[in-house]
Amino acid sequence: MSEDLPYEVRRAQEINHLFGPKDSEDSYDIIFDLHNTTSNMGCTLILEDSRNDFLIQMFHYIKASLAPLPCYIYLLEHPSLKYATTRSIAKYPVEFPPCAIEVYKIMEKVDYPRNENGEIAAIIHPNLQDQDWKPLRPEDPVFLTLDGETIPLGGDRTVYPTFVNEAAYYEKKEAFAKTTVLTLKAKSIRSSLH
């Protein structure tokens, strides 16, 4: 493993080696990645598959039974993600009735305004700071330039910002992500003894 790779890439390779490799007979079905953020995201579950009934059921259970309130679900699907069916869910009979969960699906990542040299030319507007998950209307301020000019969101719809002013995303040119609210439904799941 190359030391030249970014830490997160090296760590992902280590985790894949420990618990994978992905899609192998011995790989783990689910791994929880727990970490913190400098943005005001609160309790957040990140769902990468909107078509997997088992994951939707699990997120519904965690949100309803275990997580602090509020707990948001961020839908971040990867185009190359393979949708797999769940092979088994329990050693003993368990049934989960149909359910629905509210998720925040990423629409677009928004960069900071930049000057001709590519340097950040504005900060997150104070009205947006720490307002992750709250409705953001087109006329609402999102940036404040170094000259004191307020820049509104623009567009034609209300969005829900996430990862607002996340320090780890400065280098990725992301001031915040715009999301929209969706409802995902899962069919019932039943496990029985064989």
TrEMBL record:
Residues 3-94 form the Succinylglutamate desuccinylase/Aspartoacylase catalytic domain. It comes from the Eukaryota. Its cofactor is Zn(2+). Residues 100-179 form the AstE/AspA barrel-sandwich hybrid domain. Pfam families: AstE_AspA_cat, AstE_AspA_hybrid. GO terms for cellular component: cytosol. SUPFAM superfamilies: Zn-dependent exopeptidases. Keywords: Hydrolase, Metal-binding, Zinc. The keyword Zinc applies. Gene3D superfamilies: Zn peptidases. GO terms for molecular function: hydrolase activity, acting on carbon-nitrogen (but not peptide) bonds, in linear amides; hydrolase activity, acting on ester bonds; metal ion binding. Catalyzes the deacetylation of N-acetylaspartic acid (NAA) to produce acetate and L-aspartate. NAA occurs in high concentration in brain and its hydrolysis NAA plays a significant part in the maintenance of intact white matter. In other tissues it acts as a scavenger of NAA from body fluids. This is Aspartoacylase. The lineage of its organism: Eukaryota, Metazoa, Chordata, Craniata, Vertebrata.
